[in-house]
């Protein structure tokens, strides 16, 4: 404890630390832990999902991609001044989840050029880039050329957009030597064994890739000081374990550093004393920092008995942290390039009118921070207030209906204050509309929700590819593994708080526990509780004047969950197929409907 406190620096000096987006809130000053630098240092982003403008309603994450460009530049300058190296990594899911990407037509009109401005040393693809033909072709046509040999695709092919020929999306691996230290690195870029991709891409399961000749040759290379495996892969996953074991089988003690993603959490896994994996959260909330010290280099061999030192820090994405870690201030920190990119983001947001306000929320509505059901739960709000108003088809309005939405279709909280065009995309970024099956016997339809929510046992046994936990938000998957042990999570961390009671109040935020302990977050925060949510929520909507339950009812659902709904019908001995389904509310999706609801109901709160 005493040791740890030595690293805590209280920053009390008040200096202007404005982030570059005009509406971005200033970060709140907070006690920070210092970084431990090494021979080689890394900055890591993952699952940014279009949040390149930063968070305009949360001071802790208010820096934008331009600020991050200044940060990585200053960090590299600092490293190189000390003869050390710094590499920048991104592990995919750069798209879908924020107006900056989703609100343009075509989608992503502005984001490719913005992302390209960052000097990224290693980059790979996430599952979101592969759901639609167009987005994977955009990777191939735009991002791969933009990043050249830094873009890796170890287990991912694409059908060439013109010739149809199956080819690697990008190079399979990269061997290079770092500039300052001369560390010889063998790098790979993976995606987990994802199967929901459009058929113009092909993902090879990791267990097959490790048997490929090119992979075996690469890992047999003895002239390697560090294996670097980046991937859109959770750090606690069978895929990373397979890669770890494959490399360890032939290189018993060469250090291995993994950078992962996909589950939207901060996490750090130790495989052995020389192998660690870092996952750096989501949505531009976190810049992951990793350092390694004590590696062999092309000119200096370190005894194998000496384990290198690995250190990780989860940096809150705000200017206060950026200034602290670079030891610079508002005058000396920004680079012209970073400021130009912030301007570019600002211009894109203006073109897309993302600040257009539909209405104002009277209170915060949480996905996980409030218990479900409760009046602070975004899902209770949807169920009780929104769905009954929006799920109305002019041709079926006199018919009772059950409206179902999967909780994973909602991606973010709603904050008290303006609900903008951007908010609509942030809360509901998917293009999903509604579909329905008409006149379903009520006694059976009323059992659907239980089946969809019983943790998948029923459906999973019928069809292994349709597990019902897939319907819940991705963050919840890690709740059951190690970060969260029960539905009420993140216990009060007294260790961290007691010595600081006399210090300025801490703000709520990440208080991560991982394989290296509980000192990983750069900013000291008070913990935030997290509650479990069901896979699917439902509203029964009856026409006026109806009394009692109807005999038959329309089952209306967000189209993403159709395979699960049809399977659940099958379990109930109802023989419906896709031919029995039809569009409900032509031309609308959850995003447009939410925007209309807010306009009609929250306009007066502003
Ligand atoms: C696909 O993306 C390209 C490049 O951004 C764009 O020109 C095209 O209109 C998009 N097509 C669709 C169907 O969105
Ligand atoms: C891929 O899917 C499209 C429909 O999205 C279909 O028309 C095409 O035949 C499929 N191609 C292959 C090779 O299966
Ligand atoms: C920033 O740091 C520089 C150099 O240390 C100093 O001259 C300047 O006054 C500082 N500016 C602010 C706004 O604190
Ligand atoms: C920043 O933008 C200005 C004005 O467009 C341009 O002259 C300058 O070269 C840019 N600087 C960098 C480093 O990109
Ligand atoms: C929500 O608030 C309403 C009235 O404000 C109350 O009647 C209801 O019981 C509350 N629901 C929950 C789940 O707390
Ligand atoms: C629904 O009922 C109302 C009132 O009885 C009627 O005016 C309207 O035409 C009905 N709509 C449909 C689609 O049947
Ligand atoms: C929902 O539909 C509208 C209108 O068709 C479209 O502009 C919008 O992009 C769609 N929402 C999403 C998240 O794609
Ligand atoms: C949370 O857990 C408690 C006990 O562990 C249980 O009583 C409660 O019903 C759970 N709440 C939810 C929303 O699952």
TrEMBL record:
Protein name, as recorded: Calcineurin-like phosphoesterase domain-containing protein
Alphabetic keyword roster: Signal
Species of origin: Endocarpon pusillum
Lineage, top ranks: Eukaryota, Fungi, Dikarya, Ascomycota, Pezizomycotina
CDD domains: MPP_YHR202W_N (cd07407)
A Pfam family hit: Metallophos
Region named Disordered: 498-521
InterPro entries attached to this UniProt entry: 5'-Nucleotdase_C_sf (IPR036907), 5_nucleotidase/apyrase (IPR006179), Calcineurin-like_PHP (IPR004843), Metallo-depent_PP-like (IPR029052), Nucleosidase_C (IPR053828), Pesterase_C1039 (IPR014485), YHR202W_N (IPR041823)
SUPFAM superfamilies tied to this protein: 5'-nucleotidase (syn. UDP-sugar hydrolase), C-terminal domain, Metallo-dependent phosphatases
GO BP term, pick one: nucleotide catabolic process
Domain Calcineurin-like phosphoesterase per the UniProt entry, residue ranges: 41-265
Gene Ontology CC terms, in alphabetical order: cytosol; extracellular region
Superkingdom to which the source organism belongs: Eukaryota
Gene Ontology MF annotations: hydrolase activity
Chain ranges of the Putative 5'-nucleotidase C-terminal domain: 364-566
Secretion signal, residue range per the UniProt entry: 1-19
Regions that span the bilayer: none
